[in-house]
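Hi P.,

Sorry for the delay on this. The queue was packed all week, but I finally got your sequence through. Input first:
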Amino acid sequence: MKQLLGSLKISVNDQLYLKDPESSQLGRKIIEYSILLIDEIGFDGLTFKKLGLSIGSNESSVYRYFENKHKLLLYLTSWYWGWIEYQLVFETHNISDNSEKLKNAVEIICRPIVEDSTYSHINEVLLNKIVINEFSKSYLTKEVDAENKEGYFAIYKRLVHRLEEMIREQDHSYQYPTSLASTIIETALHQQFLKDHFKSITDCDKNTSPADFLIDLIFKLLNK
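Then the structure:
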């Protein structure tokens, strides 16, 4: 699968950038170091001046690629969800049993991330941490409705609908497949955050993963 994924370019909405960062060495360096810097100081602490210093350049070079850091965060999170979507599609397309397919999809969404060498400028492990900690900042804004109309969240929404379709296949009678699909993805992030930071208010730990919790919940809801 890694070879197949490596031959595919994860397409991100071209309105998120002024110049495609994948088109140049500098652009890829901006992506690489933005992930490192956000992981180190958080999204709120990120500035293009700091990012410019990290890449040995100035902030104007970053502005040639991204209008602002919000667009940069949207780019990073969109890329992440596209990467997860590719894995989900390729790892479940040959599974004919609906229950097994849905279970595998949840495990893919929840599983610990390992670095994928096919994208050498992107540290997927750190990007996963950024998505867990910062993803909500990409849409909890006054501009969310306008940005949604522009398709900024299309990849994330497409992943939700793929999961929704699997839920429908598992139980045609279930009334809330879309709500359940979006809840699964958001809960995967939230339970991982609790597991890392608020251990006393989750049952997820080194022996119980968010996938264990969600699979138990899902299959108690469906086909009652």
